[in-house]
Structures are given as C-alpha cells and as structure tokens.
Amino acid sequence: MTKPLDCGDCSMCCKIPNIPRAEGDVIFNPDREDGAKLEGEWCQHCRPGKGGCSVYEDRGPTCREYKCVWLQSQDRGEGAMPLSMRPDKSKVMLQPTKGGYGMIFRVLPENWGAWQKGGVKRLLLGLWEKDLVAFAADTNGRRAALTPAAQEMVLKITDELEDEA
Ligand code: SF4
Ligand code: SF4
Fold first, then answer.
1. I want to staple 12 with a disulfide (CB 3.0 to 4.6 A). Which of 34, 37, 87, 110 is the partner?
2. Which residue has a Cα nearest atom 8 of ligand 2?
3. pLDDT tens-digit map of 105-156
4. Contact 14/139 with Cβ under 8 angstroms?
5. From the CB of 92, is ligand 2 less than 6 Å away?
6. Domain boundaries, given as residue ranges, for the chain
7. pTM metric for this prediction
8. Ligand 2 pocket, 85 CB below 6 A?
9. Which ligand is nearest to the CA of 54?
C-alpha cells in the first residue's frame, strides 16, 4: 500500500476558512473578542513555510480534529489524492457542501480559476459526471457556481484569446 502523505508545508486550513473558537481552542485572532479567525485571515500561531503551527502540541480540539478532503483521502490507500492536489500545491482547498450534494473549491483571491488545472480539474469533471454541484469561493467573498456550460465558455474564450496572439 502507498505510504499516506501528510500536511507537510501546507497550512491552507489555517488561512482560508472561518474558524470559530470552541472550548479548549487557542485564540486564533487576538484582535477579536471571541478569539475566532475569519475567512482569509492567518491564525496568529501559523508560521507558513516555517514549520506551520507554532503551538502544534497545544492546539485545541478544532485543529486536532480537522482534516481537509485531501488529508482524509490519505486514509483511503489506493484512493488517496496525489501530492499535487494538496491545497498548498493545487491552490484549492476542497470542502464538501453540507448535505453532500456537491463540493466547494475554496481559494485565495489570487488563485481564482485554479480548479481549471490538473487533478482538481479532473475531480470537477468527475463531479459533473455524477450530477453533483460545484462552487468556487474565494476569501474576499467572491462566489460562483461552476457549471459545465461555464467551463466550455472559459475554454472557448481561452482559444479565442490564444488565436488573437
Ligand atoms: S493538507 Fe489539508 S489539513 Fe493539512 S494543512 Fe493543508 S489544508 Fe490543512
Ligand atoms: S492553532 Fe495551529 S493548527 Fe490551529 S489554526 Fe492556528 S496555526 Fe493552524
């Protein structure tokens, strides 16, 4: 069996999502009364690219229990997603919708459109084949439904612009 991969240098879940503070959690943002962190803010304890969480041993239950879709897939042996799809590599953090009818492709604003490439794009096409719904969301509040028709338009426009060059 393939050895499961781990988070490595990825810290995307310490920036992209809102993290409400539960009992026993560290303070994520000291400037907020509730200590929670908002979408797009770095947790105060994160040292991105320099070891990640600086309070790893003392991190609270929310952080201990959290596993993104990519990390969960590492428990599936042969079904594990490749390293290229880890959020720091692909620039997309996958999140199932509540109710399981689809997937949200969460990105930083500068990575809008990152789902058009590689394994993430193949996953998107697979969702459509199963009639599941896909959404894109960036940390500035930009939201979009990703539909096959929109994907076709992006490819068409890409071809048009390349023809112009
Ligand atoms: S791989 Fe997933 S769980 Fe691990 S740091 Fe990145 S986003 Fe978080
Ligand atoms: S406490 Fe550590 S694991 Fe939790 S959000 Fe902050 S940096 Fe990330």
1. 87
2. 14
3. 999 999 999 999 999 999 999 999 999 999 999 999 999 999 988 777 777 8
4. no
5. no
6. 1-81, 91-165
7. 0.90
8. no
9. 2
